[in-house]
Specification:
Chain lengths: 199, 211
């Protein structure tokens, strides 16, 4: 509240006259009267009037422009900005995850010459890549990585994959091709060794 | 309006809803001017709602901007056909509640709150009135706004949503994430609390009223 003001005394006495009533005070008084009379409709009308006159801040003249700047709308189209971030994040995370799983598979194929191990490793890597991609895509959209949400999305994604024969067939074929490639790599690595081996 | 039956809404409201949906679709299609129009259309009600909750004009403006940015980022979660303003108020409510919980918003004492620069950005009622009259109205407004400010933040919010933004009970329930009956009870109690504060101030008794 402001402190003493030269016209305060005058104002106070002025307030004590009925003709001085402001619209805000009038609506507040009307609301009180309606509440006492338990007149629901009148109370609601008075409250609407009360809020019409209750001071509130006016937005700055450049409010919308500042919002637009903060959303980068002027430079990035809305439908590309977020998906682009999400796709990049998803691709990086999923590729990292897939490589981490493919390395042991490659090790099995090249060093141990293990067909089954390479196939299983490839399958896990590809499934992991898909799962990681889907999860990171969803979490990137929300911009908040919540473990529970990520787990639920992952569960949904795997249920979706498991329920789709086409996806399972495609996954098996891609895994077989990957394992075959790893096997060919193993042959390439081991053949020169054999050639140089002492007879 | 006390129900969500869209068919019972006046034609103007339905047209506005359609226009909002169109602006949302255009924004999602990359049209910056469409989002700008949405902001211009709702900046005042959103700012007002947040201000009623935080009672600091500068903080309210900042939070309102953040609410619009968040709304933009999540625009794809808005379901066309629903009331855009309710969805937007929900975003603003969540952003403000987050802030209030996270930082335990600095609560300015009432004396200081209604004083100083921040108050000057508030709209002056009746610009055509004389300076003396405007000063008096300002003083009255301060006293009554302070009385309103003594209500809890949740009471101020539901009263604003109901009587300032004119939302239905169901829409308010959606915005604040509470049940319909909870909202009705909260509004009822908020009204009683406001009446008590106004009575204490003496708004209907000239001999008592001294802003």
């Amino acid at each position: 509240m402001p402190h003493d003001h030269p016209s305060r005394e005058h104002r106070r006495s002025h307030d004590e006259t009925a003709h001085d009533e402001t619209p805000l005070r009038a609506s507040a008084a009307a609301f009180l009267a309606a509440e006492r009379a338990e007149d629901e409709a009148a109370a609601e009308t008075a409250l609407r009037g009360f809020f019409r006159h209750l001071p509130s801040p006016a937005p700055a003249a450049d409010f919308a422009a500042r919002v637009l700047r903060r959303t980068d709308l002027r430079t990035l189209p809305a439908d590309l900005a977020r998906p682009a971030r999400a796709w990049v994040t998803a691709a990086i995370l999923a590729t990292g995850l897939a490589l981490a799983v493919l390395l042991p598979a490659a090790h099995l194929a090249v060093v141990r010459i293990d067909w089954v191990g390479a196939f299983a490793g490839s399958m896990v890597a590809i499934a992991g890549w898909l799962g990681g991609w889907i999860v990171s895509l969803f979490t990137a959209f929300d911009e908040i990585v919540l473990f529970g949400r990520a787990a639920s999305v992952l569960g949904r994604a795997f249920r979706l994959v498991a329920a789709s024969p086409q996806v399972l067939v495609a996954l098996t074929l891609i895994s077989a091709v990957t394992a075959l490639l790893l096997r060919m790599l193993a042959e390439l690595v081991h053949t020169p060794r054999k050639a140089h081996a002492p007879s | 309006m006390t129900n969500l039956d869209r068919s019972a809404e006046p034609r103007v409201e339905r047209d506005e809803a359609r226009r909002d949906d169109e602006l949302v679709a255009r924004t999602l299609g990359g049209d910056a001017s469409a989002f700008s129009r949405l902001v211009e259309r709702y900046q005042r009600p959103v700012l007002s709602l947040i201000y009623r909750m935080v009672r600091d004009p500068a903080r309210a403006e900042d939070l309102a901007q953040e609410a619009f940015v968040r709304a933009y980022e999540r625009l794809d979660t808005y379901e066309p056909g629903r009331k855009f303003s309710s969805w937007l108020f929900k975003v603003a409510h969540n952003r403000t509640i987050d802030e209030l919980r996270k930082k335990t918003l600095h609560r300015v004492p009432l004396e200081a709150e209604s004083d100083g620069d921040s108050w000057e950005v508030l709209e002056a009622p009746e610009d055509s009135a004389s300076p003396h009259r405007r000063y008096e109205m300002g003083e009255t407004a301060r006293a009554i706004a302070d009385a309103f400010g003594r209500l809890s933040e949740s009471y101020r919010e539901v009263l604003s949503l109901r009587f300032e933004q004119e939302l239905s009970y169901a829409e308010i329930a959606e915005v604040v994430g509470a049940g319909l009956s909870t909202v009705k009870v909260r509004i009822h109690r908020a009204r009683k609390a406001l009446a008590r504060e106004l009575e204490r101030l003496g708004v209907d008794a000239p001999e008592k009223f001294a802003p």
